[in-house]
Amino acid sequence: MSVRVVRMRNGEDVVADLYEVTSKDDPEKPIAFQLRHPYNLYLTDPSPTGDGEIRKLSSPEISFQPWAPFSKDHTIMLKMDEVVSAYETFQEVIDKYNELVEAVNHGGGDVTTAVEGDTAEESTGVPVGEGD
User: Fold this and answer.
1) Which residue from 32, 71, 74, 125 has the highest number of Cβ atoms inside 10 Å of its Cβ?
2) CA-CA distance, 73 to 108, in Å (whole number)?
């Protein structure tokens, strides 16, 4: 599994099990990403002040929501043009993501959840980040 956060061109952050997709003609050049079990990530402050001051976010809440909730399949293809970056995230986020995917795969659990913390052509390609 290669869990990464993908920052989209539209500003969304999506966490997923991420794989590069290549063509048979040029297996070295990725043409798309395959996102397995993609979820939007939202960072919220449980205690906003509303005064407009800049302050430290001391206890953020991270919410997960299905990224393509009307998709029959849990695997989505995404053109490379739509991605700004893909990066590793905190272990707490990965653990909660894995719990969520496990619950969905076994027919239990809610597909939307939150976690609090201080920190916030072929699909046979290699998971992104493996072998780096």
Assistant:
1) 32
2) 17
